[in-house]
Amino acid sequence: MKQNRTWAVVSVVAVLGLLLGSLGRQAEAQAEKPIELIYHFPLAQGTNTGVVQWWMDEVEKRAQGKVKFKRVWGGALGKLPEQPTNIRGRVFDLGNVSAVYSPGILAVETVTTLPFLSDNLRAVQKAQYDFMKSKVVQGQYAALNAQPLLTYTNEALEVISYVRATTIEELKPLKIRAHGGAADALTAAGLTSVGIGWGELPAAFERRVVDAAVVPIVSARDSGFHELTKYVLRVPIYYFSWTVAINLQAWNALPKDIQRVMLEVAAETPNKNADLFEQKYIPEAWADFRKVGVQEVTWSGKELAKFRALGGEPVWNAWVKDMTAKGHDGRRILDDYRALLTKHGG
Length: 346
Fold this sequence. Notes:
Blueprint: H1 2-32, E1 35-41, H2 50-62, E2 67-73, H3 83-88, E3 94-97, H4 121-132, H5 135-143, E4 146-161, H6 168-171, E5 175-177, H7 180-188, E6 192-194, H8 201-206, E7 212-216, H9 217-222, E8 231-234, E9 239-247, H10 248-252, H11 256-266, H12 269-291, E10 295-298, H13 301-311, H14 313-325, H15 330-343
Parallel strand pairs: 1-2, 1-3, 5-6, 5-7, 8-10
Antiparallel strand pairs: 3-9, 4-7, 4-8, 4-9
Helix pairs in contact: 2-11, 2-12, 4-12, 4-15, 7-13
């Protein structure tokens, strides 16, 4: 009888051991499961997101598998102008926003879209990153229930055209697709600006609804626009910038060590993005333009200076006035951003 009780005790202990071991393994497996964050970009994957893809890869690697990004491309979770509100409502955890497409919501960052502030991509990239960390920009994102993580710029927007033009006067008969600071610069210089969506641009070119367009050259090549035009006018107007922001609740729920890794890698993106564009994306895009016979048209220093005088400072001053009317210290924001450009050699 005593022997039976002993075996019963041993059996119970064994079963409990197996059960506890199983629960322990389950808990361990759950603990090892990475945190998944949904990243959304409303356009196709490509050079527009090269540095973001690098950033996510590096974060996953340096966090040693503790976090994983689910990458959703092509607008499945909303269009580009909807990105800020979708991040605020946590339709997804993080994604790109653009002051060009959401100027009302991202009013402070529209200073980065002003024309003719710089023609130095690396300086612009570094200045925009420093500006993102400023109190005024951080406050803008806090009001959106978001935390900005990194910012980056495409190459300068220039003019692709059916017509060879080397002066402002030669541009005056043309209908030119533009947005943001480029549209403001054209209008200030007495030129005709037409608002057409990116996806509608090929058809607009083919039907000659427009004669020219202000576009970033790399993105134009990615979309096949190099096969729709004859000339590229080397007139850099402004740099299209992106900010990657995360929903504030998603950010606050992350362990501190993962937050630290994200910010450490983000601090490396200004130089990484500049390297990607200067050493890879821009040379490859120009090679493709030349391959199909597109010709570069360089403007004289005198004509460029004239365009900048007409479409630069007058547009800046109008922006300051508009921002002041909206309750922002427009002059200080502009001066601070220009000081950052100067600091970084722009």
